[in-house]
Write a structure and sequence with these properties.
There is one protein chain. By secondary structure, this protein is of the alpha+beta class. It folds into 3 domains: about 5-75, Orthogonal Bundle (Arc Repressor Mutant, subunit A), CATH 1.10.10; about 85-130 and about 205-250, YebC, transcriptional regulation domain (Alpha-Beta Plaits, 2-Layer Sandwich), CATH 3.30.70.980; about 135-205, Alpha-Beta Plaits (2-Layer Sandwich). The chain has 10 helices and 10 strands. The strands form 3 sheets. It has a 4-stranded antiparallel beta sheet. The chain has a 4-stranded antiparallel beta sheet with strand order 5-6-4-7, sandwiched between helices. A two-stranded parallel sheet has the order 8-10. The protein is globular and about 45 Å long. The chain starts with a helix and ends with a helix.
Length: about 250
């Protein structure tokens, strides 16, 4: 497991997901509004909105929040106009980073992202210099429960998934074709396996092994980027061995 999947596991171990639920809801609300603005407020005819609503429900986002975000996107309620941007960069040890943002001030956001990269030993990169090493996938996390790895793999493939990552202690991470995320999640739920999270991600084609102080710096950079208000997602291609991970999390 590497990059975004490993970072998701790290956040669960640190308890960061519960501690930052307000940030998660804010991020989802922005994405819902932009999806509704670009493709309309009907999830049945708007694949992007359907996907983000899947993530919102997996996070137990209140229905009122969801409805309000949709109405802001469709213009039924006043709201901020957000602009989408994708930045590419490098972290410690040459770790490749994709940073997706929704912002109402691109100059402010790019300045803050550049500052964070520099602070933790990274740098901005030219467009296209990083993204080629990633491919878009769907990720669905389901609780392990009492299922064996063989059982979840069989159920996931039957539901239309591509693969299952079993490295995490508390969840199975199921990978799908990006266009199949909603259908696979629905099929799993019908099997009694509701998603703890469901999202589109960027999977790295190759990874960089990071250890020692560099591992700690990479994790601090990832957390700092995700704490930035305009950042929606951060994807990376690091691979940190378990022993290095344990040491980095203690710092």
């Amino acid at each position: 497991m590497s990059g975004h999947s490993k970072w998701s596991t790290i956040k669960r171990k640190k308890g960061a997901l519960d501690a930052k639920r307000g940030k998660i809801f804010s991020r989802l609300a922005k994405e819902i509004s932009v999806a509704a603005k670009t493709g309309g407020g009907d999830a049945d005819t708007n694949p992007r909105l359907r996907t983000v609503l899947l993530a919102a429900r997996a996070e137990n986002m209140p229905k009122d929040n969801i409805d309000r975000a949709i109405k802001k996107g469709t213009g039924e309620l006043p709201g901020v106009v957000y602009e989408e941007a994708r930045y590419e960069g490098y972290g410690p040890s040459g770790v490749a980073l994709i940073i997706d943002v929704l912002t109402d001030n691109r100059n402010r956001t790019v300045s803050e992202v550049r500052h964070l990269l520099t602070r933790y030993g990274g740098s901005m990169a030219e467009n296209g210099s990083v993204v080629w090493n990633f491919e878009q996938k769907g990720n669905i996390s389901v609780a392990r429960g009492k299922m064996t790895e063989e059982e979840i793999f069989e159920k996931a493939i039957d539901a239309g998934a591509e693969d299952v990552d079993t490295d995490s202690e508390d969840v199975f991470v199921i990978t799908t074709n990006p266009h199949d995320l909603h259908a696979v999640s629905a099929a799993l739920e019908a099997m009694g396996l509701p998603a703890k999270s469901a999202e589109l991600t960027m999977h790295p084609k190759t990874t960089i092994r990071v250890e020692g102080s560099a591992a700690s710096s990479v994790l601090k950079l990832m957390e700092a980027l995700e704490d930035q208000d305009d950042v929606q997602n951060v994807f990376a291609n690091f691979d940190i061995p378990d022993e290095a991970m344990a040491a980095a999390l203690e710092e």
